[in-house]
Fold these 3 entries.
Entry 1:
Amino acid sequence: MWDSDALSLASAPSEQRSGVRQRREVRHSRAGGNPVSNVLGSRLRGNDGSTQVVHVTNHQAFGKSDDGLGNYCRLNPNNSYLLVKRGNTGKRNGARKHQTVSITGRLPALLIGSAWVISCRRVQRKAIPVEMLDDIVKEFLVESYENLDQLDRDLMALEDRPDDRDRLSSIFRTIHTIKGTSGFLAFPKLEHITHVGENLLVLLRDGALRLNAEITSALLAMVDAVRSILSNIEGVGGEGEEAYEDLVTRLERLKNGESASAPSVEIEVEQVVRELSAEVSAAVEAGSKPKKAAKGGRKKKAAGEPLTEAISAFAETLAATSPTQETSAEVCEIRPPQGAAAPAQKAEKADKNQDSGDGGDRAGSVTDSSVRIDVHLLDKLMNLVGELVLARNQILQYSQNIEDAAMVAASQRLNLITTELQEGVMKTRMQPIRNAWSKLPRVVRDLSISCGKQIQVKMDGAETELDKTILEAIKDPLTHIVRNSVDHGIEPPQVRVQNGKPAEGTLWLRAYHEGGQVNIEIADDGGGINVNRVREKAIEKGMVSAEQAAAMSDREAIQLILLPGFSTAPKVTNVSGRGVGMDVVKTNVEKIGGTLDIHSTMGQGTTLRIKIPLTLAIVPALVVTCDNDRYCIPQVSLLELVRLEGDRASHDIELMHSVPVYRLRGQLLPLVYLDEELGLRHRRTQEERQSADIVNIVVLSAEDRQFGLVVDHINDTQEIVVKPLGQHIKGIATYAGSTIMGDGTVSLILDVIGIAQQSHVLSQHGTRSLIDSSEGRNEQSRVGDSWLIVDPQDGTRAAIQLSTVARLEEVRTDAIEKTGRQQVVQYRGQIMPLVSLNDFGQVEPNEHGSISLVVYNDGTRNVGVAVGRIVDIVSQSDSQFEKSEGDTRIIAGRVTRVVNLAQVAMNA
Amino acid sequence: MQTNSYCTFRVGSIYLGVEVHRVQEVIRAQKMTRIPGSQEVVRGLMNLRGQIVTALDMRRRLNLGSAEGSEPLMNVVVRTPDGPVSLLVNEIGDVLVVDGDQFEPPPETLQGIHRELISGSYKLDGRLLLVLNLDVAIRLAA
């Protein structure tokens, strides 16, 4: 089915390929109405006798761009690329979707689509249709941007270890690739700049020059220039006006060794200059016409010493005329450097790798095993998996009422596979946080130089993975926080030395997983936040009254800097101090369901901690019922559940004026009735409130506050797929989205913050106006001193410190499985081992056939501790314990064993 | 002669039509999740094969009141730039092919909300087919 006639012009003699740059245009012709199919993986033969296998992911119609469908092929003879643009035949939502497939292989690499045979014709450069070029350029841009980010990182790393040849080679290759492609795509400026940079890099790689701060700065400036040209290309389609002559001059000078750090080269060149040409020395003496001397050299404009300028120009003349000269870039490129033959060979090998089209500059193994995928495709997959999760939930629900064992088994299998698939697809969207961090060392470096500070950046946990959307969302806040730390946090070297600290400040970036969330910490060892100044500023700006400020604890006062318009910087710099910033950071973090926390110790430094969820698409939620409808509450906001029965239901709800409150461990919790808030019924009267038999309170946290949401029933927890709200209901503050439940009905997801605002738990405008001091303090004291009292059902009582408990769960006994002798349950897609608190070591179910678990997380895994029955939570500080003896204490009048969860978990 | 196809339906006593290419599908009454706090016109959310679709009560949209037992139940799911929206109507009619020259814009005496919602009518034998201005109908004042 391969039309060899149509291919007659397809192949070019291989020697021509490497020489003249030429372009071909791919044309198609109908294969006589005879559909050509099944070219996937076919062995194609060109007329030069070479054969090769072409793999195409989809064999839709290929053709020229004017076939009305937007399909075409493109051969790139320079590095044997075949780019295929495929347009969907149908229009969807008005927009045509295109996809680019890159195929690598030796020429001639031609494709047959299902109905087209493609032939090649050699055409002039100008004949490339604009839209075709666009596609290649787009590919080039994407690749180059990635490479530039890598380049920034590499250059920074190189500054610490200037002799790292592997890294130098990698940098060299990156620049080389950009240069090559920009030449091919006819971007002369880009080509020129990268060429000059490449020449400098050759010297560095071969050890003729040693990297210093000056060279690094110049190279970084080059990277910036490349980046800005690229963004010009992306934006307006051209390279832009700027000529970058200064930069070129700077790079060339450095290449010629004209810098304080390499005087020997300078002297050498100077000698050569003196000896060789009377004309040149005349020019040097006159200092006015250095250009004359630089016949073969490049044009120079930058202001500078005429002498050095002449020298550099002359050195270049020399380089151009005598290929054996030491400074000639060309020679260095060819000759293997002494004592560094192995890395050079490696570099060459890698160069070849790159030429064959893998496009990466990392180790071969990584590039070989990875594929670049369109994010839209991933998003679509993610959506589909979401649908699958919903369908799975539905089937599971139905299969519970079915006796058929095979059906039940099949649905269980479906359940497992779906969970695994969900995890797998989630993983494809996961990216290491390094991607968001990579720019920061550069930011710190530039900023610290302009502030006259010395700062090193240390990263910890750069491998920690996050959903791509979340990663994008935290990039800006992170940059802002880091800038703040550098500008306000870390002191100038003199001050640091005076305070007995090392002159060089340190900025730590840390990331780690904890309880289904990602923690990101940005810490510095700077001066810390002056809490009193924060108080003064806040009073001065009228944000709080003097009394309020005085009543605040230091920890609360620090949170004031998160208010809009706040800045303690004595003067406004171009970096920070304008008073916009931290509130924006906080808003952005909260937008993606995260929280922001600041700790600071005067004189020792500041730590900012961001907690964000791993992903946004599928979230665990609590399902509640209100007036016969089910609603979902994201578990991020959930603190605990309280159920009041009988007498307690009528007595424990008190009224503060007309507002219902509940005393939760001595702290007043404002109550919000969901049905009233949703307008499903009128406000309850006092009698109605106190005549309820059962009250279910969902304790929620909204920003800094807690409140209790009263619902009719608490159903279950469930993984839900968040779907956005349609335009007609977007405006309602009480809902964050919708989802489809297991039985196929639609449920609304409650917006906790929206409800808090609507019910005035949070003030509606200027949401974070004030931090309620009493509440914050209670919260602080509560966590450490609360004890979970459990009955292990072996006649004893045990107490577990509440702060060590990750979650409380109830599992059905039939969900317990075994691996060897170990009892395990599936928990949030992981296998969680179970241990028992009682002496028998076996987990005994309660009368409902289920087991109460205390989930402990040691940072890497969850362990379920079966505790028999959960009795109560008591608040008691250490000093209040009536009597303490070893790990046995008297709590609430009973002898109670204090259990250390970490120790118990080690048995699992 | 230009002809147009309309998907026709009845809301209360009004005989309406929507251009057939805007209609995704017509389905029976679905289980609906109400949305407390939303506008009256918004009847709720339904699950259309995994897609969540908002349902608008056309009777209320046209200010026809809601007499007992006359709740519209049939769903005409229409395509909009923001995804499908369901129009709840009383009864589904045929797909009619009508001549373009039978069209007439609404008379000046048609006032109020109906003037915005109805872009004109086709003179059929014995009755009028009112053309619903879909883009206006699905847009609710905030």
Entry 2:
Amino acid sequence: MIKKILQEPLLHFLIVGGLLFFYISNNDDSVEKEKVIISQGKIKQLSAQFKKTRQREATKEELQALIDNQIREDLVFKHGQEMGLVENDTIIKRRVQQKIEFMLNDSISSLEPTQEGLQAFMDKHKERYTIAPIYTFKHIYINPEQHKDVDAYIEKLKAEKLSLVYAERGDSIMLKQSYEDISSAGLARLFGLKFEKALNTLPLNTWLGPVKSGYGVHLVYIENKKARHLATLEEVQAKVKLDFRVNAQKKAIDAFYDALQNKYDLVIEKEVK
Amino acid sequence: MNISLRIKYSIIATLVLATPILAENEKNKDSSYAAQAEHIKQLEKDAPSNPLKNAYFGETHMHTSYSLDAYIGGNRMTPSDSLRFAKGEEMLINGQKHKLERPLDFCAVTDHSEYIGEMYTAMHAQAKGYDQDVLKELRSLTKYEEQIKWFIKYVISVNRGDAPPKHTDFFTGVESINSAWKVNVDAVREHYEPGVFTTLAAFEWSGAPKGGNLHRNVFFRDMVLPERPVGYAEFNREEGLWGWMSEQEKKGSRLFAIPHNSNASKGMMFNKNDSTGKPITLEYAQTRNHFERLIEMMQIKGNSEVHRKFWTADEFADFENADSLAKFSKREIKKENFVRHGVIEGLKYSTSLGVNPYKYGFSGGTDSHNGLTADVAEDNFIGGHGAADSTVALRRKGQVPEWLDAIDQSIGSITGVWAEKNTRADIWDAMYNRETFVTSGPRMLVRFFAGETLSKNPNDAKNMIEDGYKNGVAMGQTIVGLKKAPTFTVWAQKDVDKGNLDRIQIIKGWVDKDGKQQEKIINVAWSDKRKMDKNGNLPKVGNTVDLKTAKYTNEIGSPMLMGSFTDTEFDATLPTLYYARVIQIPTPRWSTYDAVRNNLPLLDRVPATIQERAWSSPIWFTPTKEKEI
């Protein structure tokens, strides 16, 4: 029976209410009371918020209701703070942390880096801004289905002055016979991944082959190859700017936490064994 | 927080950032919208162009975490993540790293518009209604079975059945839809790189009266966009969707729709009657013809071209038939659900109404619910429905709830578009003009032309294509009135990194004088010097797949094929259509790769090898011009 009464929520409520009342009324009236101010600014904000959601001005009564609500919110928050309820609430802690980090991030994303700043950042992170190989080359396609002896045909071609006649040689395929400044990705897309790999290892300025692709075989003449190279700022401006900002945000947050550690005397207690 | 504190933090931040490299107060030039639009315009102008057109490959059908069913399966990809995946970036899917073998040229994220608002609310802590108990519950669920239960309780129950569908109880209002739509649109803006990668604003309208799939994906040409998309709660039938689309047109948007999964439409995709039960009218036909330019041929839930049960004379009809669709949701495998039936049926209306309502070019998509885009390589498949098929065991024995057995999934298909440039306008226009083809995965190419005076027996691809554009029409177009038999020229090139080609066929469809559907399949070009018999049939190309290692060779087949067909049986009084189908040599099905890699036996239920294929959009012939819209 007693157990049952003890589980009764109403009883809990009465006890808690009683304790709270005792706690409040026990405050000494002779000490000057701490002020809780509902500022002009706050009232303006309340009425503006109302206007924004309802698309009209609040009436006098409605505004008063909002203010009353605010009074309760502020009073109870103050009171809760005094009771130490804020102190160990993870949700409130995280929210405060989030707010501060947002403010830091905000202040950084509105800052505009200079060209010099970007260049310096880029120089520091060279490896992130490389540009894949770019080729300029010609080729002759040989469709194995159209030749009885592919090897013999290749030998025959190689005996010719190919750089003069290459445009008239080769079998029909929907590829161009020469490409200027094509990226390795573009090359892989048109000729396949294996062909691109093969081309990467071949020397310049000579007819070579057969180089295999998914379509058959090719004789290839590479005129120019820009090896994998570091990009200039002009080539990757937008990407650098984005990375710069992300990096700046990260750095600012790290530095901010370092500064905080200096502000307080941080003690980390050893685990009790 | 008071202002002085705010300033304090600003100062800290600024100090941290070595002041000399920052110029404060300088206006950020890129942030102005107008300047950005100007910049994009210039890039579009400068994009490389080919007057004979290039093939661009892309995705037209996939889902991110903004689709409720995808979120339930564990999808946490955002539209931006999916577009990054499309561009070739590696992503973490179901706990494993995954990337496309080759990036795509274009992509649209097509989330189910029905619940994007609810999903926005569920995923954004600052959104109104985030704290609702039902959403707290959703976010706290970790087991797939619980998530499915939740899904059935709060979502399925308000959608299926005869009652008109509606929003869920946790819907907080249209503002949430607007916010979700903005997430998609922002991603579309962010990832557009004219000449390199095109993004299209899009959504899926998922109308399914009585569980019959009438889903359509809607695509916008540019950034003139509505405040929010529309879902089945607003309109549960296609006429309602078109009404909404025409309102958007009046407001300056340009948009079209692609219906999909006709194989699961319960006979409704190519219905004789409209939603009120009356025979379709000229107005219905004109509206459909105007707004629906392509149809999805195949996706993860099966191939909708044909089914072996009804197309017994088509030796390639037994391909990803997804028979287990009939096990769920009271579906039936019906001839009337298939695309070939539908497009030929359309010819009847061409005669009776003067307009063909089913004048569809062909496109492809995956319908991946993993946030993946055109993830269509058989040897790189990791499932398409989150927790339902994320492991080998589930793919072999599991089910995609309400849909089909996981083993019956086909992975899906990919759209190829013939366009001069890779820009939004060029890609969208090519799709609108139906100059598209679709493949079951490999990036093979197909060109298809028709005309009275085209050169027969082409042997040079470039000449054939120039001749085609100059003296004929390309795929997706219509020839009106002919005096003599048309010639069709066709060329196909293999995917350079995949299997060789077996053959090219032309499929002819028409409606005879008695109103009956007729069709004929013609072998036009083939590999390995095979001899055709007197009935026009070819011996099989062979099969090099080693089922122990899941490897094949390209010793059979051809890297490219070319040919022509002159239709001497052509009847100039009957509307007729022709499309090309390119067949690849046999290669392993995804389920075979799964089995071999995990030392498991092959399953009898599905073929161990498949012949991948490409379909061109049709070319139509009509005796007289169709009625103007």
Entry 3:
Amino acid sequence: MLHTFVALVQDKPGVLTRVASLFRRLSINIVSLTVGESERADTSRMTIVCEAPEHSAHRIRASLYKLEITVDVDEVGRSEAVIRELCLIKVSAGPQEPNGLSSRSQIFELANVFRARVVDLAPESIMLEMTGSSSKIEGLIQVLRESNYTILEVSRTGRMAMRRGHHTSRVLKALGNPNATPTPSNLAKPTTDLIPNEFEDVHEEEE
Amino acid sequence: MSNQTNTNPTLTGAEILWATLVGEGVETVFGYPGGAILPIYDALPKFPVHHILVRHEQGAAHMADGFARASGKVGVCMATSGPGATNLVTGIATAMLDSIPMIAITAQVSSKVLGSDAFQEVDITGITLPITKHNFLVTRAEDIAPTVRLAFQIALSGRPGPVLVDITKDAQQASAPFNFEAAAPPAFRPHPMLRAESSSIQQAIELLRQSKKPLILAGHGVIQSGAEREVIAFAEHNQIPIASTLLGLGAIPTQHPLSLGMMGMHGESWVNHAIQQADLLLAFGMRFDDRVTGNLASYAQNAKKIHIEIDPSEINKNVKVDVALIGDLKEVLTLLLPSLQEKASERLQPLVPVSQPFDSSSQPGNLSSQSFDLSSRSEAERSALPTSTPWLREISAMKGDATVHDIINLPDNGHLYAAHVIHDIWREAVAAGREKETIIVTDVGQHQMWEAQYYKHDVSRSLVTSGGLGTMGFALPAAIGAQVACPDKDVWVIAGDGGFQMTAAELSTIVQEKLPINIAVINNGYLGMVRQWQENLYDKNYSASPILSPNFVKLADAHDINGAHVNLRSEVTPTVTRARTSRQPFLIEFHVEKEDFVYPMIPPGAGLHEMIRRPTKDPLLETAEDE
């Protein structure tokens, strides 16, 4: 299953190697990894998505904690976090396309539906920019392909995740959080999952 | 230098390194000079540090490791860039697998040419990334003191481990103000996952209360945490027998009635059967290594498991546990003991009152003196020791005739067995009253397992052996480190003919340092453990396991080390006494039975209860059978 970890790490040379090496050693494939600045000085924020067996989440998290460069680690499930990805898609839209030059307007329409923006228009191609969940990005790519457009290039940032703030239990229930009790402590940072034998995996598979 | 706290003298990076090491309490460093590290060696004579020149950098790493294992302090080794640094790798990995606090200082080419394949440049921080707890590349003189101080904190805190500090040549040569106190790392931040929750403690107590057949598995963590007394108090209070891992040997005195001895691949049959039949395993500072569990699918199926462990990533790694108490073993047991006394008042009174706090002020490195000592107890206390609960009687009954066929209980049949040699080294130390003042440093292989079986350790840190990595060639250099750490103790190297030759060059180091190390080379003409596996699992296809050796006594003689050959059992004890009392290095070459087998043995892939038992009829023992 897919696991999403958010790690705050020191902003120093070699840190990425240490994190990546941990996954390499465990023979776990990283699906996506984003690194950037965080709200803290000298601290980078990584969102790591990996495909690993359900029971390995605790071990990955504990191993990440073991790295001296790690400041904090969190594993986030889809329902309790906002997970977003940025994607650039270059689609062939020249006169040779099935619908000729009218393909441009059709791509514009698709982009509108998916709330994607046109960021470049060339004689032979259109570049779209889109932010959203991975499933939404997959949706746009799929529709473009099934409409017989030639996708020339796709560049995706990989997922970034951030835990949601303190919500009422109704909101949480609507989000599908099984721990929808309105105590602030188990929302901001569930303390129960610090003890591994009590660790409950609330992560859900991406659609 | 480190005393100048109010002024900040300007020193070179090399001087800052030494001043920081001195400030951290380092008195001995094991190393080997070379081009990139010359500025550091140039500054060495100005500082009160004894440098031990090794013959190969691997030896330096093992010596620092042996020093740390024998003393509980951080061992320090150093090497130059390139090949010097790569030669440390085996030793660093050995320390990593056994969680040994160690600092490796390596030199690096100048920061201006980093990454250019300069002469003797190697990416040692890259190479050692997976085999160190952490490592650093330092390119500025002003970063040396804070980095080295942080390295010491990392090496010792939490689960200990080796830390490598790579210092570029220009950082060694540049100057910077030095202030030892100002370079202190931020206070150690306990692991956010390091918490033994009270609910888990209650769960643990409940499991213990329900258990009829509990068993403690005592690992290296007992020694690392200094929790020997707490474990014994816990065991006595609840009448729980204790099985030890290889690296846990010594923590619980062999003579203690609740001590079962070593578990695992070459553990005694009843110990492994006890694990398989227990209804509760209490894993104290151990990590369920594959050599300890055998086939996981059939491991301790009847038992609930409580795991007390400092490293959260070890929880549920190999064996799924029911309760995990994460934290320092001593601290967790101190939390557990009072609750137990409340809950279990119907049980026998403990010998060590649990309400009475243990003396935690004892110096580290002097752990043996605070260890449990049966002889110091009154007769009444000794007779009150629990020996006969139904569970203990059941374990005792499982011994059956196993001990009868034990080699040390058979009469002398004219053959010399390694087991005899090792058992007699122990008996000689006991007879001389030196058993608590003796450190055995083993290599890896058959002799290592016989040592674990037949040398009856009674104190912590009296066995130094490479467990996790199983590094051949470890014994001789590690013994040098142990002897330097404990100059008043008798240090014995027990090594096979194969492993001894891997690092035999360090004999010269022993002489140069005038260390009175005793060396027992167990010579059977084979790489014995390889041969044993080939005999058992590869149809006696002895491919590349016979090994030719030099005359080790002559080799010793070439180093001006006294030595003797021993072929008969009757010669063992007198020669051992001669070696021990000479107060000089002494090498004994024991010519032992060539095709001996370590029993019992769990074949790879087999369950813990599916061991190969000692044969009741051994063709080598026909003399004994005749009698």
